[in-house]
Amino acid sequence: MRKFLTSTLAVGTAALLALSACGSSEREGDTAGNPSGAAKGFAKDALIGVALPSKTSENWVLAGDLFTNGLKEAGFKSDVQYAGASTTVADQQSQITAMITKGAKVIVIGATDAAQLGTQVKQAKEAGAVVVAYDRLITGTADLDYYVAFDNFKVGQLQGQALLDGMKAKKATGPWTIELFSGSPDDNNSGVFFNGAMEVLKPLIDKGEVVVGSGQTDVKQTATQGWKAENAQSRMDSLLTSTYSSGKTLDGVLSPNDTLARAIITSVKGAGKPVPVVTGQDSEVESVKSIMAGEQYSTINKDTRKLVAETINMVKALQAGTDPTINDTKSYNNGSKVVPSYLLAPVIVTKANAAQAYADDPKLGPLTK
Ligand code: GAL
Q: Per its UniProt record, what InterPro entries does this chain match (predicted)?
């Protein structure tokens, strides 16, 4: 509650409120919800449904594989589905309905559109299935049972701080000129990331130490529909033409994830400009290489292996008829209830700590040697 309210009030712009209103959670509340199903338990080889969004970043691809293998290893049957690339909302809705029909006991959902799943979550609950929001909160429904995620507000704070640290390392004193990008407005996380980052940046913007060169802080301007790289790249192209063609220096860009960070860097390089400090998220292979090469400044390590493992632990507890482990009962209000959550801590990664951060990651460790 503290963090969300502070950030919202601190930013206080119509733009940020609009972003919040179109899907971000309030991290505030009083009591935990009252999850269904926990006391009952179910068969050890029950069907577990996993409905993931389209593959907009590497973490989603990895999550699907890890759920398929991990649920099998734990003795469950699984039905792991991705929403398609274009008709994502309708795809995901019908996939969830099919899982309910097949008798899934737990349905894990990485929502493609936070606000469009209330009917399906209600149907699941009525059929006796427990619904777990994975990574992205589902909004506007009291029927959601649990949320398992990295603390995504913290992700935004770390991104905002990394942007400042990176700019200060290049130029000790301000003012620094930046541009802001946010994720897809249908993803609840987009507002949470943005609010977290703005909690750090807004006080400096107010003091004039940080200047948003284009003045574009409205969600309609900063949003990246569908988390698509081409949308971020074309917006950056336009910003460079409108605001930086006469030689003004761009010191930093707040990018909510790695896919968009690389698109922004491609745009800047294409315009023949020096690469500014650009933040990211997801520890994507190409971005970790870019960080080691001194281009992208930072990413966030939200280890998908841990997130899937915690979700499967929750499924195991529900199977045994016990209460799953929850470590947060106040931060993520989905508009209808405060959702009992298991939150993991994200880690900021720059060139300075990449080797340590990815030491046990078979895919990323070697890139940092
Ligand atoms: C978010 C997720 C990020 C990133 C983004 C785009 O919801 O938390 O890690 O993957 O989707 O796919």
A: Bact_Solute-Bind_Prot2, Peripla_BP_I, SBP_2_dom
Closest CA to 80 of 59, 90, 66: 66
Structure tokens at 75: 């003795």
pLDDT tens-digit map of 334-350 = 999 999 999 999 999 99
Q: How far is Cα 281 from Cα 261, in angstroms, rounded to an integer?
A: 9
The pLDDT tens digits of the residues spanning 220-279 come to: 789 999 999 999 999 999 999 999 999 899 999 999 999 999 999 999 999 999 999 999
Q: Is the CB of 188 under 6 A from ligand 1?
A: no
Retrieve residue 157's tokens: 């704070």
Domain boundary assignment for the chain: 19-149+303-339, 153-301
Residue 42 structure tokens: 């179910």
Nearest residue by C-alpha to atom 9 in ligand 1: 282
Question: Would residue 208 be called left, alpha or beta, if left means φ above 0 and alpha means ψ between -120 and 50 degrees?
Answer: left
> 33: Cβ–Cβ under 8 A, 6 or more apart, which residues?
142, 144, 145, 337, 338, 339, 340
Type of residue numbered 73: E
Query: Distance, CA 261 to ligand 1 centroid (Å)?
Result: 13
Q: Residue 350 in 3-state DSSP? A: strand
CATH number for the segment(s) 19-149+303-339: 3.40.50.2300
Q: How far is the CA of 224 from the centre of ligand 1 (A)?
A: 12
CATH of 153-301, one of 3.40.50.2300, 3.100.10.20, 3.10.450.50, 3.40.50.800: 3.40.50.2300
What is the SS3 assignment for 73? helix
Nearest residue (CA) to ligand 1, atom 1: 189
- Ligand 1 mean position to 174 CA, how many Å? 31
| Atom from ligand 1 closest to the CA of residue 135 | 8
How many CA atoms within 13 Å lie on the side-chain side of 102?
A: 18
Nearest to residue 232, comparing CAs of 210, 253, 205? 253
Encoded tokens for 64: 């699907």
